Amino acid sequence: NSSVPPSSDPLKKPSDKKKRKKGFKRGPKYDHPGKTRNGFGQPDKIVPLELENCPVCGGSVERDEVVPEKVQQVAEVVDQPIEIREYRRGFYKCPSCGWSDYSPVPLGVKEGFRYGARLSSIVGWLGYGGNLTWRKQEHFIEYVFGIPISQGSLAKMHKWFQESLEPLTQQWLKYIQQPGIRCVDETSYCIDGIKYWVWVAT
Predict the structure, then answer these.
(1) In which residue ranges is the amino acid composition biased (Basic residues) (predicted)?
(2) What's the rounded Cα separation, in Å, for the pair 66 and 53?
């Protein structure tokens, strides 16, 4: 039942702590192969850290070229992670058929809308994957990416998500009516103040 929180779901089996082995530690095992142990590959920027004076006495220091340097890769958010692109569209005419119009916008750009497809997809994840409210989505975009965004723009993005998922929704509606469905789950989300539902059938 979607109206009942998971913590009070009567079908949820309580965890049996007594069955856990004594001394068993959660998480990955010691010396397991890590995801970032060997770094991230080719770096975008190499920053040499030179030293001129001794941090203890302040005297001049010399680098020992025999000892290999220590390398550490660090992933960090850049100061300006957003690239502002200005598309300048000329007006064209066709003398053959009389057609005239501005050059089209590239794929992923909507006419008159100031946010691209990749940024819009991040907003989609923040809303439906991260379960953030529109106010929190607005704060996230402004704080992390350093650009202003209104809740009206967020509403347009979420409406486009709904429209883009409509063909897939119709396919699922046909699929769940077929025999063999064993499990159906649902979750709600709000667009323009109207509650919609997403169903998952397996």
Answers:
(1) 15-27
(2) 19
Distance of CA 143 to the CA centre of its chain: 15
CA distance 147 to 75: 22
Q: Give yes or no for a contact between 199 and 186, defined as CB atoms under 8 angstroms apart.
A: yes
pLDDT digits (tens, 9 = 90+) for 136-176: 999 999 999 999 999 999 999 988 888 888 898 888 888 87
Distance CA 64, CA 75 (A): 28
Using the CB atoms, write b or e for 181-194: b if 16+ within 10 Å: eeeeeeeeeeeeee
Please tell me the distance from the alpha carbon of residue 136 to that of residue 130, in angstroms, as a whole number.
10
Contact (CB, 8 A) for 142 and 165: no
* Annotated domain spans of the chain: 111-176+183-201
- DSSP code of 64? -
- pLDDT tens for each residue of 52-79: 999 999 999 999 999 999 999 999 888 8
Residue linked to tokens 């079908």: 11
